[in-house]
Each structure stands twice: as C-alpha cells, then as structure tokens.
Write a structure and sequence with these properties.
By secondary structure, this protein is an alpha/beta fold. It is about 25% helix and about 35% strand. The protein binds adenosine-5'-triphosphate, 1-O-pyrophosphono-5-O-phosphono-alpha-D-ribofuranose (PRP) and magnesium ion.
C-alpha cells in the first residue's frame, strides 16, 4: 500500500513566534526539535515534517507551494504579499501594527506626505500608504526601527507594538489608526486542494485551543433548577446531567470559557448550586 507524502509544515525558528508555536505543536502530540541547531524534524509516527525557518520567509515558502502549511504572523503574511490564506488563528504573538513618531510630527496617515518612514514591513507599509493616496519615502530596516528617528534616518516609523514599552523608551508616541491587529496564524497556499494530513493537524490544533480556553465545571443542583443553571452555563452542546443519590438532586457537567469561570461559579451558587468544581482540560477533540 502506498502511503501519502508527509505533510510539510513551516515553523518560525526564532523571535516571538518560535517558542509558542513549538509549545502548541507539542501539546498537539507532535515531536518538536530539541535544539535550535536542528533545522528539520521528521515525525514519522504522525506523517509530518517540520521545517524551522525565518519568520519572514514562511509565507513565501507556503505561497510558492514548497511547503504545505506554516505558522506565521498575520502582519508577516500581509507584508510578504504571498498567495497564502489563513486557516486558523492561534491566539499567541498578539500585536498591533502602528505608526509612531516624536510628539507633534504627525496626527494621521494623511500627514505623512513627503515624510521618511522606516519599517521592517516594507510591503505592508507601501500598500497602506498607497491605499491612503500618500506619497512617502519608505526605508527598509531589519529591526530596532524605533532608533531610526533618533539617528535621523526617518521622521516616522511603522512597527509592531505590544506593550508600547519599546516606543516609550525611545521617546516616541503612537498616532493615527492602527494599521492592523496581528496574531499567529496557520496559513496554506491559496486555491489548492487540502494536502493529506491537514485536516488532522487542524483538528489537533483546535483541540489545543479549546483545552486552553475552556474549563470543565461540575456542580450539584436541585433537579427543578437545571433549566436556570443551563441558562447561566449552557455548555457547548448542552449540559451533561447525571442522577445523584440525594433525591431530587442532579450532578451537572458543562464546558465554560476559562475567563468566565469565577463569575459563573458566583451565579450558579446564587441559584443554589453546590460542590462547584472547576477542572482544566488536558486535551480534547470536539
Ligand atoms: N513583542 C511582541 N509581542 C507580541 N508579538 C510580537 C512581538 N514582537 C513581534 N511579534 C509578532 O511576532 C511575529 C514575528 O515577529 P518577530 O519580531 O519575532 O520576527 P522577526 O523580527 O523576523 O525576528 P527577530 O525579531 O527575532 O529578528 C510578528 O507577527 C509580530 O507581530
Ligand atoms: O510594544 P513592545 O512590548 O515594546 O514590543 C514591541 C517590540 O517588539 C518587537 O521587537 P523585537 O524584539 O522583535 O526586535 P526587532 O525590532 O529587532 O525585531 C517589535 O519590533 C517592537 O520593537
Ligand atoms: Mg522582531
């Protein structure tokens, strides 16, 4: 029997995406490299190969079809302008892409006419300026772009902002609307059939995302209050209700968003639920 070719997956080898991406794949049951010197890791048991590449190159490999799918940032994907599309948002490396300058330099993108803009994301910024009919000089820098203004290379920068600490340290302020909201995404080449093994990878990653975002909530409650409890905590497909030895009482189990757990416990307690327990989900397949 001939086996399908292995699924070929691009993973960032450094920067803000690298560690959370490998951690998520480990949680999804895949082998990951043990040292940053390993550039390729084959996981024959799961019929998958991982290629550890520079974050900026991943959309290019996937867009050209050299690799089947990859983990990258939405900002990097748009910057590359590669024919690849988002399949799944992964919830880490969340950032915004913003314009910044010394106070008083500009108030909106329209003020950038004729100015010098430094960025590591030349593709993204050039398109953004063109979309706003602004003619500005875009200078490409590989990183640490916040320093470009102090060194007289640019009037304005466009860069990734998370906490804003790097900007503050450089004496810069944000201006204008955010150019985009970014986070890590799984991408695939546009307009091609799904390769063998992709559906399984997606299901496993979705399982990790649900296990991270949801908890299990168990409680005991009088049977005639189950409808009220379901209105508070409906679960994903309705609660599991089991009989209890105590007459007129039942045990209820629901999945609830982790961030809402404390509020839901308070509300369930108010309507008479007792022995309310919250448990983490280690893994799941919905
Ligand atoms: N401080 C941060 N917080 C959250 N996400 C970030 C942060 N810095 C970068 N990112 C995101 O991580 C992705 C990759 O950026 P990163 O800066 O790690 O790559 P790089 O600049 O190519 O690598 P390096 O900075 O190591 O040279 C982008 O999608 C970016 O939005
Ligand atoms: O808003 P903050 O929390 O300060 O984070 C944003 C900073 O993090 C990234 O830098 P990185 O460490 O990747 O260095 P680089 O500029 O050389 O890419 C980004 O380019 C910003 O400089
Ligand atoms: Mg960086």
């Amino acid at each position: 029997m001939s086996r399908n070719p292995m699924l070929r997956v691009a993973i960032p080898n450094k920067g803000a995406l690298a560690e959370p991406a490998t951690q998520m794949l480990r949680e999804a049951g895949y082998r990951q490299r043990g040292s940053s010197k390993e550039l390729v890791l084959i996981d024959p048991e799961n019929q998958i190969e991982f290629y550890y590449l520079r974050p900026k190159d991943i959309a290019i490999y996937v867009g050209e079809g050299t690799l089947d799918v990859g983990v990258t940032g939405r900002d990097l994907l748009l910057d590359a302008g590669a024919p690849a599309k988002e399949l799944l948002t992964l919830g880490f490396a969340r950032s915004t892409f913003r314009l910044a300058s010394r106070p008083g330099t500009a108030a909106s993108v329209a003020d950038l006419e004729g100015m010098r803009v430094a960025t590591s994301y030349t593709g993204l910024v050039t398109k953004y300026l063109a979309d706003h009919n602004v003619n500005a000089h875009v200078t490409h820098l590989d990183g640490a772009v916040e320093t470009a203004i102090q060194l007289g290379v640019a009037d304005v920068i466009a860069d990734v902002v998370e906490t804003g600490a790097t900007l503050r340290q450089a004496g810069l302020v944000l201006f204008g609307d955010p150019i985009l909201q970014s986070e890590a995404v799984l991408v695939k080449r546009d307009g091609t059939a799904d390769p063998a093994g992709l559906e399984l990878l997606l299901r496993r990653l979705q399982g990790v995302l649900v296990a991270r975002d949801y908890v299990l909530m168990d409680f005991d409650i009088a049977a005639d209050r189950v409808d009220e409890a379901s209105a508070i905590a409906p679960g994903l497909e309705g609660p599991t209700v089991s009989p209890l030895h105590r007459a007129g009482w039942v045990a209820v189990r629901v999945m609830v968003p982790r961030k809402d757990a404390q509020r839901l416990m308070d509300e369930l307690w108010e309507i008479g639920a007792r022995a309310i327990l919250v448990t983490s989900i280690h893994a799941c397949r919905l």
